[in-house]
Amino acid sequence: MYKEGIHIDASRLREKLEGLADLARTPEGICRLTFTPAYARSCDYVQEKMEQAGMTVQRGKLGNVVGIYPGETDRRIVLGSHIDSVPNGGMFDGCLGVMGAIEAVRTLHEKGIRLRHTVEVVAFAEEEGATISSLVGSRAFCGLPLEPLQQEKIARFGVTSQDVEACRETNPIDFSLELHIEQGGVLDTQGISIGVVTGIVSQKLYELEFSGKANHAGTTPMDLRDDALVKAARLISFCAPVAKLISEDMVITVGRLEVFPGATNVVPEKVRLSLEIRAREDWMVDKAYERLMEQCGQDVSSFRLLWQEEAHPMDPDVMDAISEAAGMLGLSHKRMVSGAGHDSMTLSQVTRSGMIFVPSVGGLSHCKEEYTRWEDCAAGCDVLLHTLFQLDHMEG
Questions:
Q1: Which of 114, 176, 329, 387 lies 20 to 30 Å (CA to CA) from residue 147?
Q2: Domains of the chain (ranges plus CATH)?
Q3: pLDDT one-digit tens code per residue, 88-114
Q4: Do the Cβ atoms of 157 and 35 come closer than 8 Å?
Q5: Is residue 147 over pLDDT 90?
Q6: Could you give the angle at which helices 316-328 and 374-392 cross, rounded to 10 degrees?
Q7: Following DSSP, what letter does each residue of 198-252 receive, concatenated?
């Protein structure tokens, strides 16, 4: 339900974000890896801001920071994101969702507003996966099992299986909501204030090999060559047309390419490359791979699937609540898929989830140049707050 005249304090939100960034700032960018001193300092800072917002705080050895703002019932609405970074990243990725959620709750606290739902604000550990593996904090929070390799790596930092189990939320979660920068250029290019995320994409990562025959590059005519790199280039050239044919928001990326023997005067004998396909639905990813193999499968000498992640749709009612909140605030908005992974991938497996995007200037992220205009940060936080009002009056 829209509450006219209630807005977050934009200047205070900026102060929170800049203060958090200062705790992990380097000349190359923000570096806040889980289990590092910079991460520990940042968790202390987040706890302080949660307590100032009227929340009690729970912390554990895994690195999650959970702020609890009591409501009339124990049923939960979970807000938040992550504060860990990639090496040399930006100050908005994840952090806006955490500090924005804290600011939204502080606004409730200052206005004396108590909701039906208890609100939990969570700074999830290890979303980026630079220390252990991605989404570890949110998986532990949701009670989803960690893989053996994740458990092995966590143990090196003195975190036990009991510590992981202690992170699990035991109260019923009706909804989750994550505010995040887009990390792409769609909203910024189109001049739209708010992205209503429809889902997080399906992904598959393959490793392909192409075989040829090494020979002298100076004495072997072009029509007598068996060049593995030419075969690989043929597949690469089909990636963009295949993506465009299947879906306007599909992306196909060859991000790693190895050429053997790698000499300037030798026809390539072998090429190994990575092929990553992302699309809003699982069948689209499979269809793209099939099309590429129809065109170039005869050139591929071996392949293996390295990693996959199914699509995670957001809840339709939560999407409607975000759209309604943005509309009532007079903000332009559009529905869009998220091409990047987020903690909401995990939350969507246990509750009704939604995500709010705000523009990234120039589409830049995971770099020190990452920037979101302060007015867009405030607008996104206002949408978060008013979506919270909407969800509080819905059945979980």
A1: 176
A2: 10-200+312-392 (3.40.630.10), 202-309 (3.30.70.360)
A3: 999 999 999 999 999 999 999 999 999
A4: yes
A5: no
A6: 120
A7: EEE-EEEEEEEEEE----BTTTS-GGG---HHHHHHHHHHHHHHHHHHH-TT-EE
* pLDDT tens for each residue of 212-265: 999 999 999 999 999 999 999 999 999 999 999 999 999 999 999 999 999 999
pTM of this prediction exceeds 0.70: yes
CB 76 within 8 A of CB 173: yes
Dump the DSSP string for 247-290.
-TT-EEE---EEEES--TTB---EEEEEEEEEESSHHHHHHHHH
Reading the block at residue 79, the tokens are 């807000």
Looking at the chain, list the stretches that DSSP marks H as alpha helix, in order from N- to C-terminal side: 10-22, 37-52, 95-111, 136-142, 148-155, 161-166, 186-190, 228-246, 282-296, 316-328, 344-347, 374-392
Which tokens go with 285? 């990813």
Q: How far apart are CA 122 and CA 163, in angstroms?
A: 17
Neighbours of 250 (CB within 10 A): 24
Nearest-10 crossing angle of helices 228-246, 282-296:
140
Amino acid of residue 137: G
Looking at residue 127, what DSSP letter applies? S
| Choice among 114-128, 142-156, 166-180, 317-331 with the minimum mean pLDDT | 142-156
Beta bridge partners of 216: 266
